[in-house]
């Protein structure tokens, strides 16, 4: 019998918040291309906060779902990859960092596709290092945008290296953890 929280009319709120983040990607990209830093900063901040809010609501109230996990991952990947690529293209972020961010997400997406083709249904479980990576990427974007507005912001150079290290660590973590899971699943079959 489903719990009362599972039957709540609010149970779809985390998915709606994730969809809002997906919808925000286009206006954020447009604002970045226009170099409208204050508006881009506002929307990136909204997207960053909403990422935490939807996860908290889903876990706290037991509103987690397969769709929610997928929407959350897609929203994060779209937002972060697009922002890093555009900022690098505009010369406002290092190209090497955008390549690391995109490379990590390419590894993760390729692994997910392989899992789906070879094993079946994916049940995403982001690790702590992956969550730290996403958070640091959002913090980095916010500090870059603050600096572009000539506000005092923490050294984005240091944050760039932290993002790079966390992306590499997170990518390796995904490869190792999911390879082990795949090996166990294949042996069971």
Automatic annotation (TrEMBL):
Protein family (similarity comment): Belongs to the CDP-alcohol phosphatidyltransferase class-I family.
Reactions catalysed according to its record: a CDP-1,2-diacyl-sn-glycerol + sn-glycerol 3-phosphate = a 1,2-diacyl-sn-glycero-3-phospho-(1'-sn-glycero-3'-phosphate) + CMP + H(+)
E.C. number: 2.7.8.5
Main location: membrane
Protein name as it appears in the record: CDP-diacylglycerol--glycerol-3-phosphate 3-phosphatidyltransferase
Pathways per UniProt: Phospholipid metabolism; phosphatidylglycerol biosynthesis; phosphatidylglycerol from CDP-diacylglycerol: step 1/2
Species of origin: Dyella flava
Pfam families: CDP-OH_P_transf
InterPro entries xref list: CDP-alcohol_PTase-I, CDP-OH_P_trans, CDP-OH_PTrfase_TM_dom, CDP_ALCOHOL_P_TRANSF_CS, Phosphatidylglycerol_P_synth
Membrane topology summary: Multi-pass membrane protein
Transmembrane segments: 12-33, 39-58, 70-90, 132-152, 158-176
Keywords tagged on the record: Lipid biosynthesis, Lipid metabolism, Membrane, Phospholipid biosynthesis, Phospholipid metabolism, Transferase, Transmembrane, Transmembrane helix
Locations listed in the record: Membrane
Cross-referenced PANTHER family: CDP-DIACYLGLYCEROL--GLYCEROL-3-PHOSPHATE 3-PHOSPHATIDYLTRANSFERASE, CDP-DIACYLGLYCEROL--GLYCEROL-3-PHOSPHATE 3-PHOSPHATIDYLTRANSFERASE-RELATED
Gene3D superfamilies the record matches: 1.20.120.1760
